[in-house]
Design goal:
This protein is an alpha/beta fold and 327 residues long. 36% of the residues lie in helices and 20% in strands. It contains ten helices and eight strands. Strands 1, 2, 3, 4, 5, 6, 7 and 8 form an eight-stranded mixed β-sheet that branches. It is globular and about 55 Å long.
């Protein structure tokens, strides 16, 4: 296996999380229950921080993140990272979540010091000896934590900060400051717009319109996946490249694109529940009543769930890569 290939099931088997669930086990339990997660039966916990990240951090979410990582790896033909790294010595995974990608990077580059940083503690799991985890906000720790000094990293990776990053230009500038000359930044994220047969459809969903309005008020960028290229160029990174992957709801694209099967199933099974919990968190303080929130949650389920609701429906997952100019 080349350093750029990512077989998430193998990594999770080698580095299982502390509560004993694996990606595969999580899928079996969910499918055994009929492939439909009841969001009302779940009482999620959240990051104990003043940061704006709105998604949970409980065991269920940890398993979901690892299943999503596996699906995204398959979507990208096993190419978990796209940077042409050659003998990197220092790597950091920002917003590392469960640490699964950090462990993969540590295993792929055993001679590098690899850090993962996240707002919440990373779950206990076996890890390569060259991997260390840091708890905290990267933007508050740069040049204050000796491990996070400017111009000290060959590679900075981040994935799916769309629901937590409130200052993308500032964040990308900070990432640029961490890089050594010739180092690479790679950011993988969504554009939270849904399309049906190539035509934008989510602009007609009242719940999504409300979320997008609130996102702007909070400083979030729901189109960050696409916009990161511009952020990188404005931060001074060079040779900036971007690739869009089609992420379908369901398996309607599977025959032509078999690599979409796993992430398509994940999207249908999990994203309705994810939005169900994100809607009240996102809309806090925006003047909506409980009845309004419940109405949005019902609309969300109708928009992206239900038999046949996903046929032809997709959104974009973007990978953007930039290099810091050599001195």
């Amino acid at each position: 296996m080349s350093p750029l290939e990512f077989q998430a099931d193998t990594i999770v088997k080698n580095f299982p999380n502390s509560h004993g669930n694996s990606i595969t086990a999580g899928i079996e339990v969910t499918e055994a229950a009929g492939g439909d997660v009841d969001p009302k039966a779940r009482k999620p916990t959240y990051h104990a921080t003043d940061a704006d990240y709105v998604l949970p951090n409980d065991n269920y979410e940890q398993d979901r993140l690892e299943d999503q990582a596996a699906g995204l790896a398959e979507l990208m033909h096993g190419k978990a990272i796209h940077a042409p790294l050659e003998n990197p010595t220092r790597i950091i995974d920002i917003g590392c979540g469960t640490g699964i990608q950090t462990c993969q990077l540590g295993a792929a580059y055993p001679h590098a010091q690899v850090f993962g940083i996240d707002l919440s503690p990373v779950p206990d799991r076996p890890k390569p000896s060259n991997v260390d985890f840091i708890q905290g906000d990267i933007r508050k720790l740069i040049n204050k934590d000796s491990r996070l000094a400017a111009k000290s990293f060959d590679y900075v990776f981040s994935r799916l900060l769309v629901l937590g990053m409130t200052d993308w230009p500032g964040y990308v500038s900070d990432v640029t400051s961490l890089l050594k000359p010739g180092g690479y930044a790679e950011m993988q994220d969504f554009e939270l717009k849904a399309y049906v047969n190539g035509e934008l459809c989510s602009d007609t969903w009242p719940w999504m319109v409300a979320l997008r309005k609130r996102a702007v008020e909070r400083g979030l960028d729901f189109d960050c996946g696409r916009n990161i290229k511009t952020y990188m160029e404005k931060a001074g990174l060079v040779n900036v490249q971007q690739k869009r992957y089609c992420l379908p709801f369901g398996t309607w694209k599977m025959e032509a694109r078999p690599e979409t099967e796993r992430i398509g199933k994940h999207a249908v099974r999990e994203y309705g529940t994810l939005y169900h919990h994100a809607i009240p968190k996102m809309l806090e303080g925006a003047g909506y009543s409980n009845k309004d929130i419940q109405g949005f949650q019902k609309q969300c389920k109708e928009s992206i769930g239900g038999v046949g609701a996903q046929d032809g429906k997709e959104f974009g997952f973007f990978v953007t890569l930039g290099m810091k100019a050599k001195e």
